[in-house]
Design goal:
- It is a single chain.
- By secondary structure, this protein is of the alpha+beta class.
- The protein has a domain of about 60 residues: 2-Layer Sandwich (Alpha-Beta Plaits), CATH 3.30.70.100.
- The protein contains 3 helices and 4 strands, in the order βαββααβ.
- Strands 2-3-1-4 form a 4-stranded antiparallel beta sheet.
């Protein structure tokens, strides 16, 4: 079966430690709104899991996992009004954002 390359965009958010419950909820609603963007084929938002091994980094607050058919789909996402609105409305809630972009390999 032929393997189709995908573009994967993972974003780890490090929220400010002193956020109120209301601000955390605003962030959660904002990041969840990104799932409406049409070019997505996989969308997931999560918090660190309860797993505990030396190789696991649980220092982030939320992890956003998005998958697109190609980099063009990712580019649509980056410039999409929903994405831009999320950044505008929620960037005050985080101290740091770390992004991992990858393309699937062909084997």
């Amino acid at each position: 079966m032929p393997h189709t390359k995908k573009f994967v965009h993972v974003v780890n958010f490090y929220l400010k430690p002193d956020l109120s419950a209301a601000d955390t909820r605003k962030f959660e609603e904002g990041v969840s709104s990104l799932g409406k963007i049409e070019s997505l084929i996989v969308f997931n938002v999560g918090k660190p899991a309860a797993t505990d091994r030396p190789v696991i980094d649980k220092s982030y607050s939320y992890c956003l996992l998005t998958v697109f058919n190609d980099i063009a789909g990712h580019d649509v996402y980056q410039d999409h009004p929903v994405h831009l609105e999320f950044i505008k409305n929620c960037e005050m809630f985080w101290d740091k954002v770390v992004v991992f972009d990858s393309e699937t390999i062909d084997l």
